[in-house]
């Protein structure tokens, strides 16, 4: 059965439509949704079967899982990271919500959730109303990856209808929140005393340092 294509207002998400998304996530569904950077594909972090299905779609082994968590706020992030020094906490407070993925040593809660011994975890709070509303209602993070394109010229697909055609037989729901971006988030390694940019993306870290 083909996936559902659901149009949601990107600035003022309709409550009943967010309810629909969260219901699908809680049932173990895989959802594609917009962020402040590029479209993402994800599922309920706490649903083990859904995480396994997400791995199959992305063709990766759970042991090699290197995905990010979309979180609602800093308090939720703190549940999944081992420690966060005061300067780093202040940096996150200034730069989030925003186009950044921060890598931390994972807390003991992460291996229990994923059933694999993950030493690090990436966390995000996108500056976008749709994923914000989803994770707030869901009550826990969405585990996520970027939607990549097979085209050698354009790395990321920006058109939700095109994404739907590509994934309609692999996922349960595609959210149309308008055209997505084509520049991913900036990835920052916070596992050592010296912050290190692993991937320069949309976010400019220097303005927050």
From TrEMBL:
GO terms for molecular function: double-stranded RNA binding. Residues 15-203 form the YrdC-like domain. This is Threonylcarbamoyl-AMP synthase. InterPro entries: DHBP_synth_RibB-like_a/b_dom, Sua5-like_dom, SUA5_domain.
